[in-house]
Design goal:
Blueprint (H helix, E strand, L loop, with lengths): L1 E6 L7 H9 L2 E7 L7 H18 L3 E3 L4 H7 L8 H22 L4 E4 L9 H14 L3 E2 L8 H10 L11 H26 L1
Parallel strand pairs: 1-2, 1-4, 2-3, 4-5
Helix pairs in contact: 4-5
The chain binds iron/sulfur cluster (SF4).
The site of iron/sulfur cluster has 10 residues, from helix 4 and helix 7.
């Protein structure tokens, strides 16, 4: 088994990557470092769910450093005007910490559960992981877990896990709320057209 440090954004998104990586012959240790999640109560709720799941599964969980001030200084000023740049900076902050931990703890491979969500910027995230892994002498394990997202949704519901409806930061909470409102309006308009 190859030891791998798996950065995890939450418990539901960890289910399928862990299963698939174990099938491939990796032994994942989970690393939590997500200072992007707001408010703090939401951060603690996601972490609590991950702790419970890791404990139940017998998976080691490393709770790494989280510098919320650094996120506010380095990511928040980009704001809502450029999601691509904002998320790149956010991935970089979190994955840099995961890579630091991986190097310190003697791991050779590193990956992230962000690669399961179709809502993340897949190519940007992989690019950031590749660069940071190289800088730390690690092998990035780049996998497209997105086809397993529906299965992750089904399993996490079945397990009664807490499932959030936005990525993490306050900008994503507002963007997700706008998306939901737009979809509601579109459904209403479609219904109206069908009855006209
Ligand atoms: S949308 Fe998600 S990845 Fe992007 S900045 Fe916000 S928390 Fe980070």
């Amino acid at each position: 088994m190859t030891r791998l440090l798996l950065h995890a954004c939450c418990a539901p998104c960890s289910l399928e990557p862990v299963r698939l990586l174990v099938e491939e012959g990796f032994e994942p240790t989970i690393c939590w470092t997500n200072p992007n999640i707001q408010p703090v109560e939401e951060h603690d709720r996601r972490l609590g769910e991950l702790r419970r799941w890791c404990e139940g599964m017998g998976i080691r969980l490393i709770e790494a450093g989280e510098d919320r001030g650094r996120w506010e200084r380095g990511v928040a000023p980009i704001g809502a005007r450029d999601r691509q740049r904002r998320c790149r900076a956010c991935y970089a902050l979190r994955l840099a910490e995961a890579c630091r931990v991986a190097e310190r703890e003697g791991f050779t491979h590193v990956a992230t559960t962000l690669a399961v969500s179709p809502y993340q910027l897949f190519d940007t995230c992989n690019d950031v992981l590749e660069r940071l892994a190289a800088a730390h002498g690690l092998t990035p394990v780049i996998r497209d877990f997105r086809p397993w997202y529906p299965e992750a949704t089904r399993r996490s519901r079945e397990l009664g896990m807490y499932r959030q409806n936005y990525c993490g930061c306050r900008f994503s909470a507002a963007e997700a709320a706008l998306d939901r409102a737009r979809l509601r309006d579109e459904r209403k308009a479609a219904k109206g057209a069908a009855h006209a």
